[in-house]
């Protein structure tokens, strides 16, 4: 039995959709916080169990009869590490044979500007120290996040971000979810780490040029000064703590933390991941 946490979230949904193409529903367990959001999974024969990362008794119950767990990273950045530890502890207590985790492809934990990302490295450490066999999926920044970065009026305003010529080998969430499902079905969980990235790194100059090409509208990229961008965030009414978190995230991109290309994603997909042009065309319906 394979348990997928966060099963009704964006990544969890994609993973389970792909698992259902490769294995029978009665071999899949979905951990959800709200069973009403998992009606389609129940209809398809998936074993839906209700629980949360904070509710240890519910995790203990969810792990019963499970051989392998996919721990999808929690979204509460301040509580994330403890939540992940709760899942790992419950898995170990229940005799689970393998735990997989969706981490991040950040290069150097000692030079991170966004310290909240340290939770991913700390979770990896905790899993390795648990004695459980593991598979770690280090996922690059989703291409799906580009519209959030550049804003809803990008075709009118262009891109104004403090990232210099920092590059990211963006990949679609759908490609990563499919590859994770492939690995979970085929992998023997022999303490393997996968680096999931696109086939090529792109700067936001490339993003701007691609959006220009696809839309026929000129989309400039302005590499903003950190102070000017910080002022813009404050003018939008964002609290300072949120503004600094965003700046830290973008600073890591500028410093090349995401710029690490691997063939792992393509190998597991059996094809090349979507290119920047293919992905943006789909995301913007162009």
From TrEMBL:
<dbReference type="InterPro" id="IPR052718">
    <property type="entry name" value="NmrA-type_oxidoreductase"/>
</dbReference>
<dbReference type="InterPro" id="IPR036291">
    <property type="entry name" value="NAD(P)-bd_dom_sf"/>
</dbReference>
<dbReference type="InterPro" id="IPR008030">
    <property type="entry name" value="NmrA-like"/>
</dbReference>
<protein>
    <submittedName>
        <fullName>NAD(P)H dehydrogenase (Quinone)</fullName>
    </submittedName>
</protein>
<dbReference type="Pfam" id="PF05368">
    <property type="entry name" value="NmrA"/>
</dbReference>
<feature type="domain" description="NmrA-like">
    <location>
        <begin position="2"/>
        <end position="247"/>
    </location>
</feature>
